[in-house]
Amino acid sequence: MQNKSFLWVFVILLTLTVLYSLSFGLVAQRFEKKIYEMAVDSLSGQTFASDAERDSSVKALQGRILRDSADSKVYPVFGHSYNHLKQKELNLGLDLKGGMSITLEVSIPDLLISLSNNNQNAIFRKALVDATEAQKSSGADYITLFENAWKKQNPDPNILWRIFNNIETQEKFKPETPDDKVIAILRSEASTAINSTENIIRKRIDQFGVAQPNVQKQSLSGRILVELPGIEDRERVRKKLKSTANLEFWDCYFNDELGEYMKKASEDLGKKLAPDLYGIAGVPVQDSLITDSTSVAKTDSLTNGGIKPDSLLTKEEIIRKYPLTLLGAAPVMNRTPIIGIAKASDTSAVNRLLRMPEMRNALPLDVRLFWAAKVENNLVPLYCIKDPSMKGKAPLDGKSITDARQDFDPITGEVTVEMTMDSEVGTPVWRQMTKKNASDNKRPIAIVMDNLVYSAPNVNSEIPNGRSVITMGNSKDREKSIQEAADLAGLLEAGSLPAPARIINEEAVGPTLGEENIRAGMFSFFFAFLVTLIYMVFYYAYGGFAAVIALLANLFFLVGALVSIGTSLTLPGIAGIVLTMGMAVDANVLIYERVKEELRLGKAMAQALKEGYSKAYSAILDGNITTLLTGIVLFVIGTGPIRGFATTLIIGIFTTLFTAIIISKLVVYMRYEKKKKVSFANKITERWFTNVHYDFLTKRKVFYAISIIVIGAGIVSISVRGFNQGVDFKGGNSFTVSFAEQVNPDIVREHVSALLVDDNGNPGAPIVQSIGSTGKELKVTTSYLINSTDPNTGDLITEKMNEALSATGLAYKIDSSFRVDSTMSDDFRSQAIWSTIISLIAIGLYIFVRFHKFEYAVGVSVALIHDVLFVLGLFSLLNGFVPFSLEINQVFIASILTVAGYSINDTVVIFDRVREYLKIHRSPEMKKTLNDAINSTLGRTMNTSLTTLLTLVVMFFFGSDDIKGFCFALIMGIIVGTYSSVFVATPLLLDLQKEKKGSANSAQVSGKKIAPSKA
User: Fold this and answer.
1) Confidence class of residue 434 from pLDDT cuts 50, 70 and 90?
2) Pairing state of beta strands 777-782 and 732-739?
3) Helices (DSSP H) in 879-937: which residue ranges?
4) Is-contact 815 736, C-beta < 8 A?
5) What is the mean pLDDT of the segment spanning 899-928?
6) Is the separation of the CB atoms in 980 and 603 below 8 Å?
7) Mean pLDDT, rounded, for 262-289
8) Which of 119, 320, 404, 782 has the fewest CB atoms nearer than 10 Å to its CB?
9) Rounded mean pLDDT of 495-515?
10) How many C-beta atoms surround the C-beta of residue 244 within 10 A?
């Protein structure tokens, strides 16, 4: 074996790299365990009403300490911080960890109405309605749909500017602006609104205290995906995420103006919460406000009947005596509106202090305190704001902003933000505010949104014309300053654009269900993996042992790759890993079957190994490349669980190729070069699938007829019965509910039907199905309010569902919920259709290019269509007759495309052998060649199918209910895929070759008839 030393060095270095990546999670877990034990010790002296209360307090304290320790160096030698380790460790998806996933869509129609100053032009309004309707069945962005609707309604070109030209927007939409430029401006405004909404949502999420949240803008649709692992307060999340941003401008206090007030407030709070430290008679009050934050036990504070002086107090006692000590003093460099700085983990405790009567009574009535939106080094500044109205009404809001953009100072080169106010309201108010503040020691004006201060620039001079420049200051990191300026400009721009975000897709999973999914998923994974390993060793002896080493390495590198790219492990992801393990066996099987063939031809082991590996490469590459094409399509077009599955599948293909071709080869040659026996079968299996000469093609028309009958029955069922479409394809709401005792689905259906009726009397048409085997779990699906545009629809549906479930009189818990807007469901359906079509076309084109003959591509394409129709028909025929869900949803589409990839893999192996035989035999008899190709690859076909089926059967019986339908589709797909490779694709190749040959012969005969005579 050539380059063996180099390959060993490469494998060792790669292994060390993966171990390093995996160590992040292990070190983070060890640190978390240490902090947990510290929290337990800190609270050991306190008394709790119950174990649940103690556990909750311990976890809360652990969380606060971990947030405070985010930047602590916890990785030995390398010095990585805890925060860095958490970012690099393998994340768990919502279905495994519990939490909430929401897709938000910024209301672009509201944005256009606002830009038009609520223009009532009939054509404009009709274009908005038509664009909104078209959006339900189109994947195009809203501005494009609006443009198409406008052009359809209005034949006159270049008058669109009239709709949007008004006092506030006249600088943007100038007279005689061409329509295409107006559309470009609208698209830019929509992009700004979406980007600003994304930025605002990120800030709002910080308030939830969620570990490892995910916020990402979907580039094609402009929608915003929000994932919040571990969140439980779903109503608060909905309320926060869908509310419209409210940008305000406030005057500020200087911190030295409130110093004495804050000191008095801290003393008053201390007297209330820790009277013992002030020598006040009465029972000392132990308030969770302080102990939760500092985890301090009470201590005797009186010495000899007197008050202990502050100099003798411990740090913990100082915090109890002066609670606002939690709010560290701001740096005294210049006068600033920052009254104090707190640790991010202490903000909730400080907020409770700020809400107490003693705090409010100590401060002037016009003082408001707002946190900064930006957290730096785990510290958050607290700003002191002036509210002369004392009613929370700002002197100026964001509606007066007409333009804002990031720029540079032409003289100093500093990063700036330029802001323009409208002339009607903004300019005069802004002139008055800036004049007053500039003359008052350059007093700052705070830019506030959602009660968070985004910036508080000093006012250097009066601004009479409404055009302001905010200087971002000198920073060593210029790129960071530019990004901050761009964010602030977007925020200011969005402040004048009331474009609310609407929830169009929502999924919530309870932590209990997540834990159950982990147990079921991991158990099925390890059991299936063990079954595969045992079978390989049993069938291939030492070759099987080498395959086991390769499979373990495959799993190791696959998990390492998932950690390295920062992906989240989901339930479909676990299924993808298990399936990768099952399909990875195929590469080893192909190699070993080839080696066995060479040995049966009488070749020495060295030559058999060399040619076995060499001849197997072509089939291995073809099979994996076609599966890779499917995975790429799934990743590009799919979302959520499909993308997680595709990610695992794609990475698994590369790790499979590496481990099967390199690792297993190194293990085999290591033994061979030590002069030890290398075997690829035992006495039981050495004759299996050898010397078989079945005639698979003579009865091909019978199998054609069987396929036509079965698929025909499926098509009839699809036409008559249809499918059990999941919520993600038809829209609506789905709830998974567990009851304390067995429940009759009919009773639940009756209560849900009675309550889920809209204002027009339309019932929600609930479907109530029992899931699992206990009779205590139900899945409730309803189309109630599916077309509602009310932003509170999600809350209303949840409220009604709880009311209906409560009416049953049984204790229940909603384990998970899934809501999809009709617009989103259209997109899901479109993605499913296109992903299937594109995958089939891509595979067909690859086969045509690889084999250079259309007959091969046609045979493969027909077999793939055969397999897809078979599984689709089966899901329609069996729906309602099997004790598990046969939903047609996104995960089902992933299974269909995986089946296609597997089927093509099987077919390519046979076709590859056909191509090889055709090169060996100059004038082959086609039928015999095809039969020989099938028979010679029968061992590979059966072994790969059996190992993959064993894997999937284990997953089906021991995995969670969420993936039973997925596994069933794959099981049926593998069976029919193996069938179609032998009885559909290969026979078609024979018939197409005969047809081609017959046509060629006819042309030759015809040519002889019309040729001129030589006589």
Assistant:
1) very high
2) antiparallel
3) 890-920, 926-936
4) yes
5) 76
6) no
7) 73
8) 119
9) 62
10) 15
DSSP 3-state of 387: coil
Whether the pLDDT of residue 15 is over 80: the answer is yes
Query: CA-CA distance, 820 to 786, in Å (whole number)?
Result: 8
Backbone φ and ψ of 296, nearest 5°: -110, 135
Report how far residue 425's alpha carbon sits from residue 399's, in angstroms, rounded to the nearest whole number. 9
Q: In whole angstroms, what is the distance from residue 452 CA to residue 352 CA?
A: 17
**What is the three-class DSSP state of 17?**
helix
Between helix 664-673 and helix 605-637 the angle, nearest 10°, is 170
What residues have CB less than 8 Å from 4, skipping those under 6 apart?
Answer: 666, 669
d(CA 562, CA 554): 12
Tokens of 699: 């009865």
Q: pLDDT at residue 1005 above 60?
A: no
Dihedral sign (CA 956, 962, 965, 966) = negative
Judge whether residue 804 has pLDDT over 50: yes
113-131: buried (b, 16+ CB within 10 Å) or exposed (e) per residue?
bbbbeeeeeebbeebbebb
**What are phi and psi for residue 174, nearest 5 degrees?**
-75, 155
Q: Which two tokens stand for residue 427?
A: 């300019």
Please, what is the Cα angle at 827 between 823 and 829, to 5 degrees? 115
Joined together, the tokens standing for residue 773 give 């085997």
Contact predicate 402/171, CB 8 Å = yes
Per-residue confidence (pLDDT) for residue 1010, from 0 to 100: 36
Tokens, residue 80? 């990585």
Q: ∠ CA 622-626-627 to the nearest 5 degrees? A: 115
Q: How many CB atoms lie within 10 A of CB 36?
A: 16
Query: Contact 572/963 with Cβ under 8 angstroms?
Result: yes
Q: Are 492 and 422 in contact (CB under 8 A)?
A: no
Mention every residue, 6+ apart, whose C-beta is less than 8 A from residue 133.
none
Burial class of residue 715 in the structure, from the number of CB atoms within 10 Å of its CB (0-12 exposed, 13-18 middle, 19+ buried): middle
CA atoms within 13 A on the CB side of 883: 7
445, 457 Cβ separation under 8 angstroms: yes
What CA–CA distance (Å, rounded) separates 375 from 152? 49
pLDDT tens digits, one per residue of 859-874: 888 888 898 899 889 9
Asked whether 420 and 402 are in contact (CB, 8 A), the reply is: yes
Q: For residues 499-522, b (16+ Cβ closer than 10 Å) or e, as one string?
A: bbbbbbbbbbbbeebbebbbebbe
Structure tokens at 224: 């915003």
Query: Exposed, middle or buried, 655 (CB in 10 Å: 0-12/13-18/19+)?
Result: buried
Six-digit token string for 438:
């500039």
Q: What is the pLDDT of residue 218?
A: 64
**Cβ neighbours of 921 (radius 10 Å):** 12
